[in-house]
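Recall that a protein's primary structure is simply its ordered list of amino acids. Everything else, from secondary elements to tertiary packing, is in principle encoded there. The following example makes that idea concrete.
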Amino acid sequence: MKSKEELRKLDVNYLFHPTVILEEHEQKGPRIIVEGNGLRVKDIDGKEYIDAFSSLWNVVIGHGQKAVAQAIMEQLNKLEYFSPFYGFAMPPAIELAAKVISLMPKEWNMGRVLFTCGGSETNDSNIKIARMYWSLKGKDQKKKIISRNCAYHGLTIGSMVATGIEYFKMHFEPLAPGFRHIMAPYCYRCELNLTYPECGIACAKALEEIIQKEGPDTVGAFIGEPVMGTGGTIPPPDEYWPMVRKICDKYDVLFIADEVVTGFGRTGKMFGCMNWNVRPDLISIAKGITSGYFPLGGAIMSNEVYETIKGGLGSIMPFLHGFTYNNHPVGCAAGLANLKIIEEQHLIQNATKMGAYLADRLKGLYDHKSVGDIRSIGLMAAVEIVKDKQTKEQIGTMPMESTHRIEDLMWEKGVYGRAMFENIAVAPPLTVTKTEIDTIVDALDSSIAQMEREML
């Protein structure tokens, strides 16, 4: 391997990084990670860190699980790739599709899986599938997609517009048409300045209002994360999703569940929607399906959607959507091995147990004068940082000044947490132990305290 300085120079000169301040990155250079085992990763200097964010929500089984690497190698030795087009299939894709469907409640009546390379591609696929569904039912005007402020659904041309965080859209106009947004179930910063439960879940009722305003014959689907992730780890009130499902049924609107972050145990259930017994029509998965060991996602459709598309296209017209690496055999082999580990090591049960412990430990952070809110479900949590608990204003003149400082301080202490706007978030692998949670929360605690001394 090249030296640290050689790699740093090559990185700065040739590698383009997403979501960094480019000038700052050229000055500081990359944090170069070279190894991983369990919850820990090691940088090029040999220093170890606890990966308290599962890298990017996705390493749910932890680093270095040899069984997944072995499954990848075995599949590479048999067949690295063959076209998924024109009816060709590879055994791992067939088996993984059946396995994923088997993990869902039977009453969801889910039917088919199109494996993709990640979440953004999956959400784009499901948006197209929703529009095709209504077109083939003779309702060509039902094209509009409703999502929410604070939502994150990806950064492709379609999923970027569904995303409800405006920063991600700057300089990429013109935006694709046909998308609308409503308020998020963000009780701490309610856009209507209401208080739960007296609000009557107005954020859910907003869906019905916008459908009526736009015209039910023009709205095709509502897309939502069961628990909003990048927008700040926002679990909704318990009444929210059942109300949304009823509204979708009332107006013939499909519900696309974006389970990219919440799927495969993150919330303490196999899928996030299971926390509220809510049935989707289309589901987007990624991240936890392979725990990042190989790029993979999946667009899942109900039997109703599949049969409508099959019947509408008939015996002549093919389904004209797809990408080169759909149903990739190596990715699907990784997925099968990953799901086996999740089940055999009882990681979802551990997520429930350790999630409760994490939530309890985090409560103590309210003693800090800058901690305005703490939100968690399973093993995803966020601590919202404010200058004043009454006004809820941010610290500093620029967004994320305080949370970026906390992230940097945690890194210095050997723990990776993630700054997400005015929140500092943790989402450790589902293999996490109490001792590791203690280390994570202690690092977060002391880092908040130090940030306050410096900035308040």
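DSSP finds 14 helices and 15 strands in the chain. The chain has a mean pLDDT of 98.
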